[in-house]
Amino acid sequence: MDYNFHWRPVFKTLPDLLESAILTVEVAVLSMVLGILFGLALSLIRIHMTGPLKWFAVSWIELARNTPALLQLFFFGFGLGAFGIHFSPFLIVLMGLTFNNSGYLAENFRGGFNAIPDTQIRASLSLGMNSFQTYTRIIIPQVLRIVYHPMTNQMVWAVLMSSLGMLVGFRELSGETQFFASKTYRIFEYFAATAVIYYVLVKIILGAAKLMALRLFKY
Amino acid sequence: MESSSTYFSGFSLNDLWYLGEAALRTLWISVLAISIGSVIGIFLGLALSVSRVVAFTLGTILDIFRSVPLIIQLVLFFNFAPIIGLRLNPFEAGLIVLIVYTSCYVANVARGGIEAVGQPMRRAARSLGMNYWQDLRYVVWPIGLRAVFPAWVGVALGVLKDSALVSILGYVELLKASQILMTRTQEAILILSIAGAFYFALSYPISYYATRLEQRWSQ
Questions:
Q1: According to the CATH classification, is domain A8-216 in 1.20.1440.130?
Q2: How far is C-alpha A84 from the chain's CA centre?
Q3: Fewer beta carbons within 10 Å, N or C terminal of chain A?
């Protein structure tokens, strides 16, 4: 073993790495929020509707679940670029992650909706709620509780997937790491530091999710 | 026009074969990673379920691999191998990382399967005179497999899709091949769609079959 580890450049640029980690969290959280909204819509369409709208929802879900996330990112990056539609790297990653998250979350939500008995809907309708109120006040809160654990997993996935941003030129944690690594040639050191940052990030997210669960599901 | 045609040329039937071959390489590396990783993962899962101390230390190690993006692991290992004197080509390096990645996920699945078989059932097996391995083979395996088979299929499909990331090491699998073709033909949408169709054709039948199997077993 005749390799000398040089950690100094890593420590010198650590603030930059941590700053880009915030960007990673930002894009992951945004894609999760959008993914939950789209996922709810997709699963409701898939359950209740027929015709072209259902066909659209099913193909979105199956495409998102059965092709690699990286391919989806490339599609939003290079694919739409062929039509002359160019997005910033941030938007490419955000759209790719949202597309992917929505597909996976929609399947989770479908399981959640199926787990809620029909009598809940009938009971709230008979109390005089309209169907919008029934869903937003009775059904969806219960579904969110059922799928809370898969949702935290998906959040972790979103953070891990955002690392693909480095391949479409997005300077989040991985992209920034690659930038510094190729600048200084300390590839191993930089990526080792980034691995540690990702690990800590994931632990923080899981811890926060646990705390939130304590607060949200007191009853 | 003459000069440019040497660099850029349209998509031809040959390129379709090229993508098909690359899809086979994707299938090859994933099948290898899934089969070897699953065997290792099952033994790791067994170790996880044996004792508290082992479960804690081993679980922490496995947790690290599940909390760091695969792309970071790939770059890290590919640059770490030469340091300890290993000369690996992209295929070998990618395969090793994928095997470790698979076995970490399978370990958790396997532990779930082993825990799905109740303690009374296993005591009953032992009291019938089965030894430890017979108990595992004839009691825990068939019952546990049913409980976690869908989860295992999910892991396997995940590895199939994540094998796309090995492209960053330079192994020409489906995604790398489509990147090469995109550079040459400048027809991003077409090529990404074909690559997506290949991935879909590999992944969707398995996920469909697994869902059907799960439904049949739950009846």
A1: no
A2: 27
A3: C
